[in-house]
Amino acid sequence: MINRTKIFTIALTGALTAVALTGCGGSASSSAAPSSVSTAAAESPASSAAASAVVDNAAENGSDALDGVFNALLEADPISNQFEIAAMNIEYDFGLQADDVVSYKGVKSNDNGDAGLVLVLEAADGKAEDVANQLASYQQDQVAFYGNYAEFAQAQDNVENAVIAFKGNTIVMVIASNECTADLDSAVDSALAD
Q1: 70 burial class (0-12, 13-18, 19+ CB within 10 angstroms)?
Q2: Can you spell out the DSSP letters for 55-90?
Q3: DSSP classification of residue 169
Q4: pTM of the model
Q5: Is residue 50 within 8 Å of 37, Cβ to Cβ?
Q6: Model pLDDT for residues 128-160, shown as the tens digit of each residue
Q7: Which residues is 82 bridged to in the sheet?
């Protein structure tokens, strides 16, 4: 006979597995042409597929125009165990409005206790400062998060010293990976100057 604790544990494990699998396997569209989403689908918060479609149409990952800046910053700040930033992360993790971001390219560290990040975004016209300000809010949230764990003191220090800058519609956010020794201020200045 299965007791209630086992039933709860099995149900919880199944639910967590479903959530984990939902976050994996998504693909970003390489088409920059927006498509409309029905009002019913866009209004349904329970429909993660519809929400994901809205985000995918508003922002494109990997725009060729961002490659030069992204590659220069990644060379200066080699991120360990890279995890590609997806459209869902742009809206839900960074808190950016889908309409404010035209394209993006980024990776973050998937290592526990390493806050390393290289993110380059192209903002919609007139939205660069709004995007940079929202990234600063994300930075403060991450400082608070890592501050909860003494063993993540290096990551917290790295987040506190993150570099957020923009030139025109191009915005960058760089957080040193734990092994990074480069001067990220100079790297950002150089990358945005090109």
Answers
A1: buried
A2: HHHH-EET-GGGHHHHHHHHHHS--SSEEE--HHHH
A3: T
A4: 0.69
A5: yes
A6: 999 999 999 999 999 999 999 999 999 999 999
A7: 109
